[in-house]
Design a protein that fits this description.
Layout: E1 16-20, H1 24-36, E2 40-44, H2 47-56, E3 61-65, H3 73-83, E4 89-93, H4 98-106, E5 111-114, H5 119-162, H6 170-184, H7 189-200, H8 211-214, H9 222-228, H10 231-239, H11 246-253, H12 275-289, H13 301-310, H14 318-327, H15 339-346, H16 356-363, E6 373-375, E7 417-419
Parallel strand pairs: 1-2, 1-3, 3-4, 4-5
Antiparallel strand pairs: 6-7
């Protein structure tokens, strides 16, 4: 059975391995074992010419003997590292050259094979070397890609806001809240970035919904509501065309799933829902409830908290609600986190949003579209928080986490409708 290989960073269809050894038997063994596992081995029995072979082609890993005539493996490794500092090198040694092999490891060799070695030992060392290099590559890629993805995400989220689908800085605030929750959970920087940008872009799929549905000033039909629900799938499809945003796409796809399995698009249950989707669901609901909307003022934070707790374990992951309480206090303000976390978050590769005045000036140039509105539908299940005569603030109206609250006793939103949160 072949090892499930990642795409080759050398640009070839299979990971390329340069094998250097003065023993033909060892080279043939390496060739046969590596080919059987899906690699593309290139063998060389002369260490003096190995450098020119290496320079003339792209390789993902090098396997070299330590003791060879003319040029030892340690010197060869140093020479190759001058050309490509990150190339992983696995050294092969017999009992007589163990000290030299240990020295090679101290100088950065990725692994060591003792002769005679088995198929499993060879593959384990090559896999370990490639995995370590891939981790370094992804960390470097994160450093370069994070500000680029942030810029793209904030630009796209501005497009959402330009259509009056969100108000103010909802998308940016959601990204910040989600990132802080990810940090409290101990997720690494890459995972934090994925969830942060997923927050920025959680509703990007709405730009793929037809205006006849998106801006309809009345109740949507069942067919239209089904089309509206596709926004999470459309958003994922928009993002997953680029490999760098594949994980972000999954977060966007699943941010309307429910803990009890009654969400969409895939009706996932519990921890089958990607963690980013569970985080954004909680942050999205609280941020929307506590933000002003054109049809009602912001809900008091204590009412929003009561709603989260009332729907904990049905709509929301209880653990994520508990984490949210570590991030946001009872008044709706951000809590100060551990100083080390704060330093990491504040020192991250974030791209600031344009100044409010400049942003509004740009948006003033765009068409002024009417906000999407749908008729409020009474919730079919008892809400333990809403007072008599009020709708549940998390009424399940087909769009998912819909935010509804009466503006005053007897008052109704304009035209008996409301904006989708």
């Amino acid at each position: 059975m072949t090892w499930d290989l990642r795409p080759s960073r050398s640009g070839h269809s299979r990971p390329r391995v340069l094998c250097v050894d003065d023993e033909p038997t060892i080279l043939q063994l390496l060739r046969r074992l590596l080919e059987a596992q899906g690699f593309e081995p290139v063998i060389c029995n002369d260490p003096l010419t190995a450098g020119s072979i290496f320079a003339g082609g792209s390789f993902d890993v090098v396997i070299t003997d330590i003791h060879m005539p003319g040029l030892d493996g340690l010197t060869l490794m140093r020479s190759l590292r001058e050309k490509q500092p990150e190339i992983p090198v696995v050294v092969v040694t017999g009992h007589g050259t163990v000290d030299t092999a240990i020295q090679a490891l101290r100088e950065g060799a990725s692994g060591m094979l003792m002769k005679p070695f088995t198929n499993a030992e060879l593959l384990a060392e090559v896999r370990r070397a490639l995995s370590a290099t891939q981790m370094r590559y992804e960390a470097l890629q994160y450093r370069y890609m994070s500000p680029v993805l942030d810029s793209i995400a904030l630009t796209l989220s501005t497009a959402i806001e330009a259509r009056n689908l969100e108000t103010g800085e909802h998308c940016r605030q959601l990204g910040i809240l989600s990132e802080r929750m990810a940090a409290v959970l101990g997720l690494d920087e890459h995972e934090q970035m994925t969830i942060r940008i997923g927050g920025y872009l959680h509703d990007i799929g709405k730009i793929g919904i037809a205006d006849a549905i998106l801006l309809k000033p009345g109740k949507l039909t069942e067919e239209e509501m089904a089309e509206m629900r596709r926004h999470s799938e459309i958003g994922a499809a928009i993002l997953e065309v680029h490999e760098a945003m594949a994980d972000i796409a999954q977060t966007v796809r699943h941010h309307h799933e429910r803990w009890d399995g009654r969400g969409y698009p895939d009706a996932l249950v519990g921890t089958a829902i990607p963690l980013g989707g569970r985080i954004i669901a909680v942050a999205d609901a609280f941020n929307a409830m506590t933000s002003d909307r054109i049809y009602r003022p912001a809900m008091p934070p204590d009412r929003a908290w009561a709603e989260l707790h009332a729907h904990c374990g049905t709509q929301f992951d209880p653990e994520i609600v508990a984490v949210f309480e570590q991030v946001v206090d009872e008044t709706g303000m951000l809590r100060p986190l551990d100083p080390n976390l704060e330093r990491t978050l504040n020192g991250g590769t974030h791209v600031p949003l344009s100044a409010t005045e400049a942003l509004h000036a740009r948006l003033a140039m765009l068409p002024n579209l009417e906000p999407l509105a749908v008729t409020v539908r009474n919730v079919t299940e008892h809400c333990p928080v809403a007072s008599t005569g009020e709708d549940c603030a998390l009424v399940d109206s087909g769009e998912g986490c819909e935010i509804v609250v009466e503006t005053a006793e007897g008052a109704v939103p304009p035209s008996g409708s409301r904006q989708v949160a």
